[in-house]
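Feature request disguised as a bug report, sorry. It would help if multi-protein outputs had a clear separator. Right now it looks like this:
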Amino acid sequence: MLSLQALDDAHDAAEDRARFGRSIPERLGVGSEVLEWLSVRWALAAADSFAQGRFTRLERWCRQRADQLAEQMPPSRRSLARFGLWMLETASAVDPSVVSVVQSGNGMRFPAG
């Protein structure tokens, strides 16, 4: 679900900006391609979790979805996404109040306030 939400937030950036004044990528200080790449990573993390629980159909679906999302992203955008994600993770390591993205892809924590 988190993978799907990240992808939705990436694609709804203009709508969110119009409704709320800022999009989710803008609130995080990254481009929408970073959320698109996170959706790939989180789909793979979900697949790994399903594999541990022996939920093979769900694992297979998540892996196929991750592959599909990755294939749809042009290589230049993928490189930009990886760099943006690295920047976000580095910033959160230096100052955890920025945003903490869990390396394993198991979730996000936002600072209070």
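(second protein starts here, but nothing in the output says so)
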Amino acid sequence: MSRCARRPRRICAERRRKPIVGWKAAPRSSLPQGDTRVLPGPRARLLADPAERGTIPSSLQLVIDHVGEQLSVEELLFALTAPRPAQAARAISYNEACAALVAAQHLDWIAL
């Protein structure tokens, strides 16, 4: 039995109707123009709390690290996808960086 089948029908139907993001293999289309500034969102002040951060992916962690810098969307995407030292976190692809920005926006960590 699937997990969805065990939950009330209303919850599963709502989850299917309202996806977090509405793009297919092109997350950049969900972001504004490249010169738009990325500003701290309404919940940005909570990012110092370990409970808010939880065990987020490294791409979202990098977005959080740049929240206060007020970079443009393209500058932030460049910073997220820049090569890192060998001992640092793994490389972030362009699509993953775009998806991380969309997710951070949905979490109200950033405002675009």
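Even a blank line would do. Unrelated, but nice: Residues 7-18 have pLDDT under 50 and may be disordered.
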